[in-house]
Write a structure and sequence with these properties.
Helix content: 25-40%
Shape: rod-shaped
Number of helices: 3
Radius of gyration: 46 Å
Largest sheet: 6 strands, mixed
Structural class: alpha+beta
Number of strands: 11
Strand content: 25-35%
Distance between the termini: 157 Å
Strand order of the largest sheet: 9-8-7-6-5-11
Order of helices and strands: HHHEEEEEEEEEEE
């Protein structure tokens, strides 16, 4: 009987010890986060990425280069305007100028204008658009009046004559002769404006017709201008 009791006690003791270790193991496993491996891998990835990026930046700085900007961000950046570019008004005059005579080319956005400084220190001829000046003449502002001459023809109407009023503003640029014209015939009541460009080498003449309804100013004041040569035809 004593032996049986001892065996029973020993068995109960062993069962209690096994139960105790089983509970401890379950408790430790429950304290470990299920996503422990994922979290650890993420941290390792982020750390390795940061180190790699840092090394790359150091290499670029040592090589004297900078990382390229994202193309989408570059496209979003506004272009910096050229502060030295001249700004022209709708009548093709610049700041501090006034238009003496000008018009728009027929069926085109191009403009022809003859402008002077407000203090009449220079005179300039322009052709093109506000965004694209094809010809601005002359570049020499100090003696600009010497490059031009003006001629006109005036005839009163009568029984046998038709009233005429022709105005021509002339200058040469290289191998080309330019004549800005404004011609009026009383009989038809039509005023024609434009510019005749003659190639002096070939003699070929090109007539750039203007829109008479777009005329600004008049060439008549040139008749009293003392700074340019005036001829009566």
């Amino acid at each position: 009987m004593k032996i049986i009791k001892k065996l029973t006690r020993l068995t109960v003791l062993l069962l209690l010890i096994c139960l105790f270790f089983t509970r401890c193991k379950d408790k430790k496993e429950s304290e470990i986060p299920r996503d422990f491996k994922h979290t650890k891998n993420t941290e390792e990835f982020e750390s390795s990425s940061t180190i790699a990026e840092g090394k790359e930046l150091i290499k670029q700085e040592e090589a004297g280069s900078t990382p390229k900007a994202d193309e989408s961000e570059t496209k979003k950046r506004p272009e910096v305007a050229n502060s030295t570019k001249k700004i022209y008004r709708e009548d093709f005059s610049a700041e501090g100028e006034k238009v003496l005579f000008g018009f728009q080319v027929a069926d085109s956005k191009k403009i022809i204008s003859i402008c002077t400084a407000e203090d009449e220190s220079y005179i300039v001829y322009r052709f093109g658009t506000r965004d694209n000046i094809e010809l601005e003449f002359p570049e020499d502002r100090e003696s600009s009046f010497s490059y031009f001459n003006y001629s006109y023809y005036l005839r009163g109407g009568g029984l046998e004559n038709t009233g005429l009023d022709f105005d021509h503003f002339n200058f040469s640029n290289g191998d080309y002769q330019y004549q800005v014209y404004s011609e009026y015939e009383a009989e038809t009541g039509i005023r024609s404006v434009g510019i005749r460009v003659t190639d002096e080498k070939t003699g070929k003449e090109t007539d750039i017709t203007g829109d008479s309804n777009s005329v600004i100013g008049s060439m008549i004041p040139f008749r009293e201008m003392e700074k340019i040569i005036v001829n009566f035809e």
